[in-house]
Structure formats: structure tokens, C-alpha cells
Specification:
The complex is a heterodimer of chains A (488) and B (494). By secondary structure, chain A is mainly alpha-helical. Chain A is built from 20 helices and 2 strands. Chain B has 2 domains: 276 residues, no CATH class; 217 residues, no CATH class. The chains are: A mainly alpha (488), B mainly alpha (494).
Chain lengths: 488, 494
């Protein structure tokens, strides 16, 4: 029942949010309470799952043999914990951001945010690939109004890209892969060791794998990545939670699920396409990083960095070793904390100084020390410098690559790290050590130094989390190890 | 007594009520008469379908004259599905009709409108229940002639040319069907479909029967607007009164498909139709062309009703594609989509009717910013549109799933890709409307537009609700479709 409540709670909260649309404070209270309640619910499942329990519930059977049902396993637990925790923080941030930015349509904003989280929970706890697909599509549709929140021409264009890429890939490639898998195996259940082994030849499996990897457009593997920069027209909290955590992580989460439970990593190793898709993921890592280097808009640079980082996780799934799986699952969490911090900082800079370009941010660290300190922590974690969370996941990814004897992958990860440093450290350097170009007195006269309290609190929490996860990575690590161990 | 005569009552009640509507000169009385009739028709349909569920195929001799001398009615599972679609759509559309008809049709013609509507209902139901080939032709003509009148009652003068165009095409189709049935009668000496099916194999290898098959196929294809014989449809749907667009889009072409199924599987038999005459390959080719061309044309339409009309041509392509596979999976996928598409298109055209009532236009450029003024109507359109695209949790998704798996089971994977790609085209044309209504700056007159009345919104949302319900609980309909397909294909094998 708890499982069902986890999905239903955020899907039902919008009723209350809409009912309270005249009273902003109670309305936001609903969001805060729902997110806190959701996190507690998800956390209450955590202990049982670690001890091997697999709470499950079947809801409906729309088609004979195809069930909409939920089942909690370690990877889903990990994703649900992550998304629900960061939703709490983002809700605090949203309130500060939306109010000080005087955004319109705030009721629908909070409603769709809650619906999007409900969809993400559905993805996390999906008991089979069919259910996962349903919530995957639902997430796309529920986030569309958030991406196009501004309602202007730019939002419409961005929304068109968003919907076109995500629905296009999922409807044509992913759905085809789903129906095909179903017609070959007669099931879409998630099973340890996969369902495809023995049912298909490696040749067919190769085609299926290609369909899956590219069909899961939310993972933004090139050439289906352009929706992610386009989605940056959204308000910053949306970019932060959805396009650094919920949506993109739902993509790589789906890829990991498919790799582990549909193909099975042993069978994946026998498929010729695995190696080739790894090259595609590697190319995405490097190309996106090069493009990130050239972006002057801070949110866009973060978006391209996300494209690059997501492919680390795709790469991990394709390494087909247990340590690779651990690395990939850990990177879902570690990257999320770092990237959400960076987006929070970008939003804080936007609402206090109305600046979006990196070239205008010289000396901004003097004015917003908290924000830029948090930004530095996030940046270091992205590079993988201890003592930040990014080091842990990168460590396991490298171990996985070495275990798989993929020296090529090791090389890509190292070059990717250097590129990370190359596009993040200059921002930190300029913020703290360069003098502001224009007259600082004139520039900052009417505005206070830091962003509103709610915003600063939120980004401090995630930055602290980024450091804390280096010292205490137990919760995600135990789940990841169980995932990889249970699958050996 | 009443129960045993249900098949006859199903047709007779709307037939008798039709002239009553003409005699009741007051529009409100005529509407009440039509409303009560269509609800009674639905009740009978539900009883009939229950009976078929319980006891299988129903046969009924009109006036107790035994076949083949008298006219026999025969309703199997596929027919039950059709009756349910027609009666349900008719019953849902009627409460909606009041405001819409008052707005679009002159007072003196309202009685005529409801008369023709009931006649059309009679014809469509008659086609489904009859087991007699000539009787089928008669009912087909009743429904066609009344729909010519219904379309010509549209509020612009172009409705007249649209109706005339339909009249010409429809009459050619009817003539072809009649010629085909004449040939069949000539060769077998019977008009009863079951008897025809028994006697045809003996004379199947004659030129006359092959020509009869060709005439019937082409004639019915015109009626169901199979590409490239669809040219009458876009104008007819665009310029017809809103209620008529919704009713005809949801039922008339579907009944055409049903007639095709009857002839291919029951009368001629699957072996003759698909193995000897190779109609499967031809249909598949035309279906693919319909899906691609009509979807592409729909993307470029600025009149939303016309856009939906072209979309209907494409969706008929999906249905025919399923049937062309001649497998149980394929035919049941086709029949399932036939049901789902009726629910989808009915809902979308009803939403358009709401918009036409308030806006006086369904042109995209007039709909800028409409979502603020008519949030419920536009929300209905969005959900219906998503169902048309085939997003999970909607009826359209179930159709697509079945169709793709039926196509894959036969090994036609390029067709699977085609189906999925064209569903993306559907997203493109639906989203043009969404962007116009939600994103563009409203015109000066927009603030005066109000939401449609509840009596129109409720039927619209009923159909939208059906879209969602059949999206999560498709077991019932897919079960009926599968049984229907089993019966159809089983008959052919005999």
C-alpha cells in the first residue's frame, strides 16, 4: 500500500493545490507537506528493501497479460529516494524563486510539478516495462506545461523541441521495442537475468538494444539530445529538478533497468551492438563537453554538461560488469546533487542580478559568497575532486571500466574529467578572482547581496549534501551494491 | 414478447419515430422525440448485446417468414460491437444537439433535421442487423440519403456543394454495390448471406463472381472513404452541422468497414477474398497510402474540422490495414480501432461543435488564445487529441498496441514503423491546435467568448471519459473484437 501511496500522493495533491489557488501561502504549504510526506513514505520503504523485501502491488490490466503494477527494487528505491528528497529542497527553492521573480500561473506551476513527481515515482516503482513506459510518457506530458511556463514564442519553440524529441523517440523507437519484445517473449516483466536471453538471437537483440538506447530519449544520447538545451526555456527550478534530476535521470534509470532486467548483463555482453553503442555514449560524453565549453549562457552550459554526464551512466550500463552497474547507479545520485546545486546557483544569480551570461559574472563571488561557494562545491563534484560526492561515483565507474577491460572507456572518462574542469573552473575563477567590469556601485545599489533566504537555504542544503555524500555514501551505496550483487 | 423481437425493434423504433419528428413542428418537441428515441435505441442495443453475450449469434426472421423467402436478421459478436457503437454515439450526441442545432439550423428545418437524423440511425443499425444482402443495400441507401440531407443543412452555402459531391460519389458507390449484389443473385439465386456463403464456392471460379466481388469492394470502399476514394469526405465533414460531423464521423464510415468485413469474410469467404482475389495486398497498399498521405495533408489544414476529416481518412487506413492482414490478430486490431476511433473522433468533433457554437468558426487563426475562454472544451480536445496520437492510458494507445503487434506477428516490421511514424504526424496536427489555443495572443473579440453550456460539455466529456476508461480497461472491447474476428475468420474457413 505504501508503494501505491508514493505514486498517488503527488498525483492527487494538485486537487488541493488548485482548490487553494486564491491563498498562496496555504497553497505552497500543500506542496511542502506533500513533498515531505512523500519523502517519509519512500524512506519508510527503504529499510525493508535493503533487507530483501520487494513490496509489490498490481493495479489494472488494460490488456490481457499486460499489467499496470508496482514493485520496489534497489535501483527504483535509489531513484525514488533521490527524487523525493530533492523535490523537498526544490519546493523551498521554488517558493523563493517564483515569488521574487513574480512569475505568473503559479498554481498551475505547482500542480504540474507535483504531477511530474508523481510520474517520476511511477517510473521508479514500475513493476514492469509496460508500467514504466506509461509513466515515462506521462512524465513528458506533465513536464511540457512546466517547460513552456513562460508562454511566449521562445517557450513554444522550446516546448515543441521538447515534445517532438521525447515523444518522437519514445513513440517510434521505444514503443516499437516494447511491442517487439512483448511479441517475442510474451512478457514485459522485470526479471533478474533478463527476459530476452534464449528468446532472441544476438542479431535481433542488437536491433532491440539500439531501439531501446535511442528510444529512451530522456537519456539524451546523441543524436537525440537537442531537447535538453531547448528545455532550458523553463523556469530555473524546473530545469534544476526536472532537467537535472527527475526527467533525465528517469531516462538513464530506464536504460539501467532495461540493461539489468530486460537484457540481463550477461546476455548484454554477448550482443555485438553493446560495444558500438558504447562508442556512441563515449562520443556523446566528449562532444557534449566540447559544446559546453563554448556556451556563454550559464544554464545552457549546465544543460550541455548534463548531456555529457548522462552518457557516463549509459556507458556504465554498457560496460556490463557489476562494478559498472554500481558506478552508474551511484552517478545517478551524485550527479543529481551536484547538478541541482549548480542550477540553483544559476537561478539565484538570475533573480538577484538578472544575469544569464557567464561573461557578465566576473566578481560575482564577492557579492554572493554563499551562492558561489555552493557553486564551487557543485563544480568540484562534477569534476570528481574529493571530498565531494562526484569522486565516489567516478571511482566506481573507473573500477567498472577497468573490470570490463575497456581501456578505451577509461581514456574517455579521464578526458571527460579534464573537459569538466575546463568548463567549470573558469566560472569559479572569474567569480572570485576577477574584478567586476562595470561600476559595482551602480550595479548593485538597489539589490541586496544574496538571493532570497529560501533560495540560499535550498542551495546550501544540496551543496552540503554533495559533501556529505562523500563521507556518508552508505544509503545509495548499499542499494547499488545490492543491485549489482543480486544480479551476479 | 418484446425481448424476442428486439432485433426488429432496434430498427423499427427509430424508423417510426422519424416521421413523427417531422410532424411535430415545434423544434423542442422534435428534439425531445429524437432524444427519447435514441435513448430507447441504446437500451435495446444493450439488451441485445447482453443476449448475444449469453447465447451467441442471434437470428431473427422478419414477420416470421423463414429465410430465404423472408428477410432474416443475423447479429453476431462483430455486429454487437457495431450496434453498441452506433446506439451509444447516437444517445450521447442527442442531448448535445439541442443548442448546437438551434444555433446552426434554421427553425423551419429543425424537424427535418431530427427526422433525417433518426432515418440515418435506422439505416446504420439496419445494415448491421440484417443478414440479407439486398436488405443491406436498402439500409445503406436509407442512411446515405438521409446523411446527404443532414450535410446539406450545414450553416454555410458550401454545405450544399459538399452534400452534392457526397451524393454523386455515394450514388456511384451504391450503384456499384447494387450491381455486385445483382451478379451474386444471378449466379446463386439467393440474397441471404448465409446461403450466399454456402453456394458461392461452387461458382467462385467464374468471371461473374470475380466482377461482382470487384464491384462490391469498390462500392463499399467509396462509402467508407478508403483512399483514394475519400474525396467526398473532407468537405462533407467540414461543412456539415457540428452534430452531424460528430455522429457521421463516429458511425457511418465504421459501418462501411463492417459491410466490407461482412462481404469479405461472411459472404465471399476468406479464401476467395484473400487467396484467390488478393484483396489483402491491394487493401494494404491503399491503407498505407491513406495513412501517410492523409496524415500529411492533415498537418497543413487550417480548418480544424477539415484537419480532423483528413485524420479520419488516415485512421480508416489503420482499420483497413488491420483487416488486410486477414489474421485473427489483424482483424481484431482493426475492429478494436474501429470502436476506439469512433470514441476518439466523436469526442473531438463534439469539442469542435462547442467551439463553433461560441466562436462561429473552427479556423485555427480564430482560435488564438481560446484556452483561457473555454478551458473545459480545450482540455477535452487535448485529451481526445492525445488519444488520437495514441498516448498510453488512452483508447488510442490500445489500438496502436494491438495493431503494431498484429503487424509484427506477420513479420511486416516496416509497417510497424509506418504506424508509429504516422502517429507522430497526428501529434503534429493536434499540437498546432494546442499551440494556437494555449500560446498565441488572443484577438480583440476573444474576451467576449464564453465556455460552452453544460449540456454540450457533459456529452463531450462522457466520450473523453470513455477514451480514458477504454485506455486502462480494454479487456471487454478487445475481447468482443477478438471473438468477432474469430467468428468472421472461422466462417471463411468453412
Amino acid at each position: 500500500m505504501t508503494v501505491l501511496a508514493c505514486v498517488a500522493l503527488p498525483l492527487l495533491a494538485p486537487v488541493l493545490i488548485t482548490a487553494l489557488h486564491r491563498w498562496p501561502n496555504p497553497r505552497e504549504a500543500v506542496t511542502l507537506l506533500t513533498s515531505a510526506g512523500l519523502f517519509l513514505l519512500v524512506y519508510s520503504l527503504h529499510d525493508d528493501v535493503l533487507h530483501g523485501a520487494r513490496p509489490a502491488i498490481d493495479l489494472l490490466e488494460p490488456l490481457p497479460g499486460l499489467v499496470i503494477g508496482f514493485e520496489v527494487e534497489p535501483l527504483g528505491m535509489l531513484f525514488a529516494l533521490l527524487a523525493s528528497f530533492l523535490w523537498m529542497v526544490t519546493s523551498v527553492y521554488s517558493i523563493g524563486y517564483m515569488r521574487s521573480h513574480h512569475e505568473w500561473r503559479q498554481t498551475s506551476y505547482y500542480s504540474y510539478f507535483s504531477l511530474a513527481l508523481g510520474s517520476a515515482m511511477g517510473i521508479a516503482f514500475a513493476g514492469n516495462l509496460f508500467t514504466l513506459f506509461i509513466f515515462y510518457e506521462l512524465l513528458t506530458l506533465m513536464t511540457y506545461p512546466l517547460v513552456t511556463h513562460a508562454g511566449d514564442d521562445a517557450a513554444r519553440e522550446g516546448g515543441r523541441m521538447y515534445l517532438g524529441y521525447l515523444l518522437g523517440t519514445s513513440v517510434i523507437l521505444l514503443l516499437l521495442a516494447l511491442v517487439w519484445t512483448w511479441s517475442l517473449t510474451g512478457t514485459l516483466d522485470f526479471r533478474a537475468g533478463g527476459i530476452l536471453e534464449g528468446a532472441v538471437t544476438p542479431g535481433i537483440a542488437s536491433i532491440l538494444l539500439v531501439l531501446f538506447i535511442f528510444g529512451i530519449g530522456k537519456a539524451a544520447v546523441m543524436p537525440f539530445h537537442l531537447w535538453l538545451p531547448a528545455a532550458m526555456v523553463a523556469p530555473t527550478p524546473v530545469s534544476a529538478l526536472l532537467h537535472a534530476v527527475a526527467v533525465v535521470k528517469a531516462g538513464v534509470f530506464t536504460i539501467l533497468k532495461v540493461a539489468i532486467y530486460i537484457f540481463g548483463i550477461d546476455f548484454l555482453a554477448e550482443i555485438p551492438a553493446t560495444q558500438w553503442l558504447m562508442y556512441v555514449a563515449a562520443a556523446t560524453i566528449l562532444l557534449a563537453a566540447f559544446i559546453a565549453l563554448r556556451q556563454d549562457n550559464l544554464k545552457l552550459r549546465l544543460a550541455w554538461s548534463t548531456v555529457s554526464q548522462l552518457s557516463y551512466i549509459v556507458l556504465c550500463a554498457l560496460l556490463v560488469t557489476p562494478l559498472g552497474i554500481v558506478g552508474g547507479s551511484m552517478h545517478i545520485v551524485m550527479h543529481a546533487f551536484a547538478k541541482i546545486t549548480l542550477f540553483f546557483c544559476a537561478g539565484a544569480i538570475l533573480i538577484t542580478t538578472h544575469k544569464t551570461r557567464i561573461s557578465e559574472m566576473n566578481g560575482i563571488g564577492r557579492r554572493m559568497p554563499w551562492t558561489m561557494a555552493a557553486f564551487t562545491v557543485g563544480a568540484l563534484s562534477m569534476i570528481g575532486v574529493p571530498p565531494t560526492a562526484g569522486f565516489i561515483s567516478k571511482w566506481y565507474i573507473l573500477l567498472g571500466a577497468i573490470e570490463a577491460q575497456q581501456l578505451f572507456a577509461v581514456g574517455v572518462i579521464i578526458v571527460g574529467t579534464l573537459l569538466n574542469a575546463a568548463y567549470f573552473l573558469p566560472i569559479v575563477y572569474a567569480a572570485f578572482f576577477r574584478a567586476p567590469e562595470s561600476n559595482p556601485k551602480h550595479e548593485y545599489k538597489d539589490a541586496p547581496g544574496e538571493a532570497p533566504l529560501a533560495v540560499v537555504v535550498a542551495l546550501t542544503v544540496t551543496a552540503t549534501g554533495t559533501v556529505a555524500l562523500f563521507f556518508l555514501p552508505d544509503i545509495p551505496l548499499e542499494l547499488a551494491l545490492q543491485l549489482a550483487g543480486g544480479n551476479k | 414478447m418484446l425481448i424476442s423481437n428486439l432485433p426488429a425493434l432496434q430498427v423499427v423504433i427509430p424508423l417510426v419515430s422519424a416521421p413523427v419528428c417531422l410532424l411535430l413542428r415545434n423544434p423542442r418537441h422534435a428534439w425531445t422525440c429524437a432524444l427519447i428515441t435514441s435513448w430507447v435505441v441504446l437500451a435495446i442495443a444493450v439488451l441485445l448485446v447482453q443476449k448475444i453475450f449469453a447465447g451467441g449469434t442471434i437470428t431473427y426472421a422478419i414477420g416470421a417468414w423463414a429465410t430465404p423467402w423472408g428477410i432474416g436478421y443475423r447479429i453476431d459478436m462483430a455486429g454487437a460491437l457495431m450496434i453498441l457503437i452506433i446506439a451509444a454515439i447516437g444517445a450521447i450526441v442527442m442531448p448535445y444537439a439541442w443548442h448546437s442545432v438551434q444555433h446552426e439550423i434554421e427553425n423551419r428545418n429543425v424537424g427535418l433535421f431530427y427526422t433525417c437524423y433518426l432515418l440515418c440511425l435506422t439505416g446504420l443499425l439496419g445494415i448491421v442487423v440484417t443478414g440479407d444482402a439486398f436488405n443491406l443495400f436498402v439500409f445503406l441507401e436509407i442512411s446515405s440519403l438521409s446523411s446527404y440531407v443532414l450535410i446539406s443543412l450545414g450553416s454555410t452555402r458550401r454545405a450544399l456543394t459538399a452534400a452534392f459531391q457526397y451524393l454523386v460519389m455515394g450514388t456511384i458507390g451504391a450503384t456499384f454495390i447494387l450491381i455486385g449484389i445483382g451478379f451474386l443473385y444471378m449466379m446463386t439465386g439467393t440474397l441471404n448471406m448465409v446461403d450466399l456463403a454456402q453456394r458461392l464456392p461452387d461458382v467462385a471460379d467464374t468471371r461473374t463472381i470475380r466482377v461482382a466481388f470487384a464491384f462490391v469492394t469498390v462500392g463499399v470502399s467509396i462509402k467508407l472513404a478508403l483512399f483514394p476514394l475519400h474525396l467526398w469526405l473532407p468537405n462533407a465533414y467540414t461543412f456539415a452541422p457540428s452534430v452531424v460531423s460528430a455522429f457521421i464521423a463516429a458511425t457511418a464510415t465504421k459501418v462501411g468497414v463492417y459491410v466490407l468485413l461482412r462481404f469479405f469474410f461472411t459472404v465471399f469467404g476468406i479464401h476467395f477474398s484473400f487467396a484467390a482475389m488478393h484483396v489483402g495486398e491491394i487493401l494494404m497498399l491503399l491503407a498505407v497510402a491513406a495513412i501517410l498521405v492523409a496524415s500529411l495533408v492533415a498537418v497543413f489544414q487550417d480548418n480544424v474540422k477539415r484537419m480532423l476529416a483528413y485524420s479520419s481518412v488516415a485512421q480508416i487506413g489503420y482499420i483497413i490495414l488491420g483487416i488486410s492482414l486477414a489474421s485473427v490478430d489483424g482483424v481484431s486490431a482493426g475492429m478494436l480501432h474501429l470502436f476506439n476511433h469512433a470514441v476518439i473522433k466523436g469526442a473531438l468533433f463534439l469539442a469542435m461543435g462547442c467551439i463553433f457554437l461560441r466562436l462561429g468558426s473552427v479556423e485555427l487563426r480564430d482560435m488564438h488564445g481560446l484556452a483561457r475562454q473555454m478551458p473545459w472544451t480545450m482540455a477535452a480536445f487535448v485529451v481526445g487529441g492525445l488519444s488520437l496520437v495514441g498516448i498510453p492510458l488512452t483508447a488510442g494507445f490500445i489500438s496502436k498496441w494491438y495493431l503494431v503487434s498484429a503487424v509484427l506477428a506477420e513479420g511486416y516490421w516496416p509497417l510497424a514503423v509506418l504506424i508509429l511514424v504516422s502517429s507522430l504526424l497526428a501529434l503534429m496536427y493536434i499540437w498546432r491546435v494546442v499551440e494556437a489555443a494555449y500560446f498565441f495572443v488572443p484577438g480583440a473579440a476573444m474576451h467576449k467568448v464564453k465556455e460552452a453550456p453544460a449540456i454540450m460539455l457533459i456529452p463531450t466529456w462522457l466520450l473523453i471519459g470513455a477514451n480514458l476508461y477504454f485506455g486502462v480497461n480494454a479487456g471487454l472491447v478487445s475481447g468482443i473484437a477478438r471473438q468477432g474476428a474469430n467468428i468472421l475468420i472461422g466462417q471463411g474457413v468453412q
